[in-house]
Amino acid sequence: xxxxxxxxxxxxxxxxxxxxxxxxxxxxxxxxxxxxxxxxxxxxxxxxxxxxxxxxxxxxxxxxxxxxxxxxxxxxxxxxxxxxxxxxxxxxxxxxxxxxxxxxxxxxxxxxxxxxxxxxxxxxxxxxxxxxxxxxxxxxxxxxxxxxxxxxxxxxxxxxxxxxxxxxxxxxxxxxxxxxxxxxxxxxxxxxxxxxxxxxxxxxxxxxxxxxxxxxxxxxxxxxxxxxxxxxxxxxxxxxxxxxxxxxxxxxxxxxxxxxxxxxxxxxxxxxxxxxxxxxxxxxxxxxxxxxxx
Length: 294
Fold this sequence. Notes:
Radius of gyration: 20 Å
Strand content: 15-25%
CATH class of the largest domain: Alpha Beta
Helix content: 25-40%
Number of strands: 13
Order of helices and strands: EHEEHEHEHEEHEEEHEEHEH
Strand order of the largest sheet: 3-2-1-4-5-6-11
CATH architecture of the largest domain: 3-Layer(aba) Sandwich
Low-confidence stretches: none
CATH topology of the largest domain: Rossmann fold
């Protein structure tokens, strides 16, 4: 199939790009003109920050079967200066893609959401403004899939991890502290975590693409799915396993920091698991792969 992939330069996007190519799909990425895209080699690139009319013409000339929308801006605790960028990245860009998808009768659209849209396991209660913008985009999308043949489905993620992750994630911080012997101040550490290894995340997207490819009746349209972990453990327990797997000690002072506002103490489980998907890599194995790669 011909697939437009946004967010291909990010952690999940690079892994998913390779998986799609390995299955012989024709992948076109949408990226900023300033993005590092050398990994795409001969593949076509659409530039997101060019004139919209030019982008529409280029989009139309390709004839996409589907869109996988990963691109977003994540800010945990926003500042006033972040508002414009959050709306631009998480609502405006996606709406432009939906407009082009409708104009060109694209069959399906895989959106990426977050379980942060479900604070306290509620149907909708955003943890932060980031989560609110993700919900707002889903609300905008309803207009497009109700007025076209677009099969729109959202995959809502929790925490993800794996090799070559340059995001400011906890394992990178812990490894830095373990190697330096630096003392680290953290919250009391009782918040529960669910983590999904990158191979399982990619498999989730690939599974959903196959479901939509065969969903001629649009039975999945408007639905949301999740990739639930078989393991749910506290941040303190994660640190213990980290020390066990790496053989390194962490000098963590638990409780020196307060929990963040609207700290997620229990990950939401209100969203249906993606049909046909199963977690294959449990945490100890995934962490071992991550450590072995660094």
